Amino acid sequence: MSQKALSPLSTRLCLICLTLLICWLPASPGPAVSGEALADSAGKASPWIFQKNSAPDEAKQNIERIISRVQQLQAKIAEIRNNALDKHPELEKMLKKLVLTRKEIMGTHLEQENVDLQRLEEIGKKLQDNGIPPEKTKTLKQEQKKLVLGYRIAENRTAQNDELQELRKNFYTELMEAAKKENPNAEKMLDELNMLQHQLQLANPTVMSGGAQ
Which of 61, 89, 91, 164 is the most buried (most CB within 10 A)? Predict the structure, then answer.
């Protein structure tokens, strides 16, 4: 199936959006929290972190505060990132190379794992149809599970690729330097964002859903 070529503006917007996935977020599963931030959160009782003995309402309020702060940090970091990319065209070239390299490597691993993304999307749409017979649903879910597993394997192998890690490291270093010029507190804000996201992951799901069993 032929694909329409993206306009330069659309391509640029896509690259900027992908920066969060490739650069500001960790390469390995789980949040990338600095050792100092982790030590601080482990050694002190942060007023925002979820506590097991907290009352449900209090825990919910703590989580809401974290989410609000996360949103504030994300907006500020996005502004700093966009300004850095605007003022440093070479970063955009590095990002484009990083995105294209990742796409190529990921495609190779997906092929090796026999993962058809179009088929995976098709299965997802079919499973939304409540009129499918139970036996058919079971078969589709089994196929979906197999494809998802293959996708995760391909994703992990892609993340471990030496060339990609080097490109990502270089881009992150250059972008962070440019970001610091925009705002000297950029790295601190990023550390705080990662720590808060880690705290949200530690929050009890039953509290997030109102304690329903």
Answer: 91
